[in-house]
Here is the input.
Amino acid sequence: MRLAVISDIHSNLEAFQAVMDDISKLSIDDTVSLGDNIGYGAQPEEIIENLKHYSITSVLGNHELALLDSDYLKTFGPFARKALKINKKKLSDKAIRYIATLQPFLVRYGCRFVHGMPPDIVTRYIFNESKQRIIKTITRFKQKITFVGHTHQLVIYELDQGILKKKKLLKCRLSLAKSSRYIINTGSVGQPRDSYNEAKYVIWDSDRYTIESRFVPYDHNNAAKKIKKAGIPRQYAYILKKSINEEN
Here is the structure.
């Protein structure tokens, strides 16, 4: 079974479409989203409609939570809060009802899926957790493999004989050890924070027991123009165009 795991689309339709085109060429059996389908970008309604069109199951992200919970929205910074308020105006009642059905975690194919920190925390960043807490957490539930988003980074945590190892998951395919436990941070489709401006996602192959990171080029300039036109803070447009090649 080959599973595509996507996360943090953030209303970026160009990035999402490019990822779905890539997935269509790779004999993928199913796709799961780790949430934050909305926010930052300019086309939240189109993303929700496409998730339903492709029958993609999604868990709840912290941006979906903030859309539904005004008290939690107050914890956002002013720019993220403004972007989400603009997103909310663009969403139909039908789309908001769909968002309200999303659950904080999912167990499927012997794996666990959660936006922030397992077993079911939507709002916490795994990179803020101590090694001791991650080790304690990773051994609490039955599933040996957990997929998380939220950080917009591609990182894999491996617990091997009580020792926690952490490494980046950049443009590679890794064989996993069946004796280890893993938390796999899947990167971001639509709002990079890693100096690579491609859309990122991962493929889990349960038969080969491998994880592969995918970097997919897309028209980030057009996505950025739409952000500016929508009145969303421009920093979310600029980050789409920033790449490691431009820095070097």
User: Anything to note?
Assistant: Residues 63 and 69 are 10 Å apart (CA to CA). The radius of gyration is 17 Å. Residues 244-248 have pLDDT under 50 and may be disordered.
